[in-house]
Amino acid sequence: MKVGLYFGSFNPIHIGHLIIANHFQQFTDLDQVWFVVSPQNPFKNKQSLANEYDRLEMVELAIKDYSNLRASNIEFSLPKPSYTIDTLIHLNEKFPDHKFSLIMGSDNLAGIGKWKNADILLRDYDFYVYPRPGYNVNESYDNVEIVDAPLMEISSTFIRSSFKEHKNIKPMLPQKVWEYLDGSNLYG
């Protein structure tokens, strides 16, 4: 089975994440897309993160009706901060019959040189990349496929900020995620 790994904090997951994941699963050769909920991204401030179990629950609620999308808590049991190469090694041991690929925006690919063992990632894994404004993709990589996915100008940062300001952000979130957040104090 060919699985695309969509890593992120998903703090919270929003419709942009769902649209991208569904697009990659439907319009590439990926059999499934797994949302890998990262408890601590080495490039992000941990204090702005909701609890990883809340974020995982929101991902599970959001993808409930998508048969080829999965939520993964694989990084919860790994050392923190989470490094993609370590997660991939662990997944390859746990699921030897799966072929794992990475899904990311062109902004992340542009900064991949800062990642732990970036040379091994670029050598051993396929990358499915969606364009982000202002970030060109290095065309010299053999294992990078540019996917003409819909561009979404929604960010979790914007959603958290708007939530704190009591703005109506309901259209930006899957219904079940909105219901989970509505009345909670996760971001306010």
Could you tell me how far the N terminus lies from the C terminus, measured between alpha carbons in angstroms? 40 Å
Quaternary structure state of the chains depicted: single chain
Task: Give the overall shape, derived from the CA principal axes.
Answer: globular
Query: Total helix count?
Result: 7
3D structure, described in words:
The structure is a single chain. The protein has 188 residues and is α/β, with parallel strands linked by helices. The protein has seven helices and six strands, in the order E-H-E-H-E-H-E-H-H-E-E-H-H. The protein has helices spanning 15-27, 52-63, 84-94, 106-110, 118-124, 156-164, 175-181, and strands spanning 2-8, 32-37, 69-72, 99-105, 126-130, 144-146. Strands 3-2-1-4-5-6 form a six-stranded parallel beta sheet, sandwiched between helices. Helix 2 links the parallel strand 2 (32-37) and strand 3 (69-72). Helix 2 packs antiparallel against helix 7. The longest helix is centred in the first third of the chain and has 13 residues, at 15-27. The chain is globular. It starts with a strand and ends in a 7-residue tail after the last helix.
